[in-house]
From TrEMBL, chains A, B:
Recorded superkingdom: Bacteria
Protein name, per record: TetR/AcrR family transcriptional regulator
Organism name: Virgibacillus siamensis
Keyword Transferase: no
Record feature DNA-binding region, as residue ranges: 36-55
Length: 204, 204
DNA sequence: AATGTCAATGACATAATGTCAACGAAATGA
DNA sequence: TCATTTCGTTGACATTATGTCATTGACATT
């Protein structure tokens, strides 16, 4: 049974911190694939085996780095919206899309690496899948409520419609992350995506 | 200057064919990542270096295998539709979606590997990007025509709308490829996707 | 002070890639 | 027919990365 943090414990924490920080730096510089454990431990100034004391492999190390951004996405995902009119829906949807895209753009460097990493590792892809499902769950619930309020036609299957809508957004998000010149057309994309969605569900 | 195929040439052709065939088999069995050159050449019964005579690396070898399926997708992509009424549009869209999904399902084993491979290789991703762009180009042109015929509101940006619509479809396609139990709900998905799209664009 | 614990280490075994000098059978031509 | 050239084929090699593990020694405990 341990009571207080010993110096040894602090030292260990510090080593882990150095590893994460160095990994972050190296991942941003070289991308996911090209980054090696050797580069990371060299930057951190620790021995090779040390990395494996704290992380099972490169993927787990990267997931530790992803966590911060992931958290931000979860927060956006949890913002439910409960419009009472079609006009309200339109405006709220537009805001949520804008937040989602801005979040990605503001974290562009790390999001680029995340994009790499998703392709390279089932483990990391599963991690992103969590975010995706969180969004889809939220949207599904939103559609259900809108249907109960007679704002949306009940012939729409909430789960499938939610997926469709989320996928549209995610693909554009990755595209914004990739490109470097999207400050001008971001708002246009937000408008068009929202128009598509609200035209389908909240008109008619 | 060569005139006729020498025996040597035929032998070389045969070696290349054996490599492609063996690679196909091994890729289906082990997926893209886990397949190694050693496994392929062992199955083909040729020497290690031989693989590198015909293919720069594993990726290029896989692209040779993808080509057949790619061709089929290009064919579906090139089917333009030019509806004169909203009802016609709805029915034609539904058919095209169904064809796209069926094509993927019928080639499920290799499409699973393609999905792996896209994540693992920029070269292969670029190859798939060609198909994607071909679809998007076609859809964009379709929307333009529908707008000229006053079937679709001109506030829709054809390029962005086309991308949104295509992305929706592609994501569901990959999902159908992944899962094994989609014979029952395929038609439901087709209905819902088409409903989403036609509700947004062709209703008013 | 003696003993136990555990963070840290780097050499090793393993595995995959891409290259290349050399082999030898087929093609050429005299 | 035989000598010479061409070129498809080969596997050993150098290279590079991964994950493991026995060992070490500084720190904690008694």
């Amino acid at each position: 049974m341990k009571k207080h943090l010993t110096n040894r414990d602090k030292q260990a924490q510090e080593t882990k911190r150095k590893l994460i920080e160095s990994a972050h730096q190296v991942f941003l510089q070289n991308g996911f694939e090209k980054t090696t454990i050797s580069q990371i431990i060299k930057t951190a100034g620790v021995g090779y085996g040390t990395a494996y004391v704290y992380f099972k492999n490169k993927h787990e190390l990267f997931i530790a780095i992803m966590e911060e951004v992931m958290q931000q996405f979860f927060e956006v995902a949890h913002q439910k919206f409960r419009p009472d009119t079609a006009a309200e829906a339109s405006s709220q949807i537009k805001n949520q899309v804008r937040e989602y895209m801005n979040l990605a753009i503001q974290n562009r460097p790390i999001m680029k690496v995340v994009n790499d990493a998703i392709g390279s590792s089932d483990r990391i892809e599963a991690e992103w899948e969590n975010i995706r499902n969180e969004f889809i769950r939220g949207i599904t619930s939103d559609i259900n409520h809108s249907q109960e309020k007679q704002l949306v036609n009940t012939e729409f299957d909430p789960a499938i419609t939610a997926k469709s809508w989320y996928y549209m957004n995610e693909m554009f998000m990755w595209q914004l992350v990739d490109a470097d010149d999207n400050h001008d057309n971001l708002e246009h994309i937000v408008e068009q995506l929202s128009l598509f969605y609200t035209s389908a569900l909240y008109n008619g």
